[in-house]
Every structure is written in structure tokens, then in C-alpha cells.
Amino acid sequence: MAAGPNPDARLFTGPRGGRISTAVLRDATHWDDVVTALGYEHLRRHDLRHTGLTWFADAGVQIHVLRRIAGHGSLTTTQRYLTPTSTRSQPPAPHSPPT
Questions:
Q1: Is the Cβ–Cβ distance between 28 and 15 less than 8 Å?
Q2: At 93, is the secondary structure helix, strand, or coil?
Q3: pLDDT tens for the chain, residues 1 to 99
Q4: Is residue 24 within 8 Å of residue 30, measured between CB atoms?
């Protein structure tokens, strides 16, 4: 996702300005403690990536846009992330920019 005039700019950055590492995310959110307290030890942070992409797809975001958001090199990789309900052919959402 991007903000501002640079479409490739990061919306969120790590403490040093780069990518947010999984270690930083885990520590900042107290992930291990939270999922243990909730009884969801099996839940991985990566599962949320799948969920987010699926929600975007269900909202009508086009697959090529999802591929860029996820940083995938191919559409095939992005398609593997999506649940069967979100892989059906959908018209673009009304607010989607033309391609």
C-alpha cells in the first residue's frame, strides 16, 4: 500500500525506516502472549496476510493490485493466497482506478 505521490512508498515502516521485520511486529504486538492468552497458539502472523488479501479481493480489488500490495512476483503466487470465494471473477470496485 502506498501513501502520497510515490505509489511504491511504504505506508508503514520499521524503526529504522525500512521494512517491518517479523521480529519487530511480534515484539510490538506481544503476538506470542496474545495468541496464547486467547488459546490460538496455532495462529501465525502470516495467516493475517492471507486474510487481508482475501478481504481486499472480496471487496473487489483486482488481482494485479493485490499482487503489488503483497509484493509477489507472479499472479499465481497471489492466487494461492486467496480463499475460493475471493478467486471468482469480480468486477472492479467502483472506486478502483482504471487500468
A1: no
A2: coil
A3: 445 567 667 777 777 888 788 788 888 889 899 999 999 999 888 888 888 888 988 899 999 999 988 888 999 988 887 766 654 444 444 554 544
A4: no
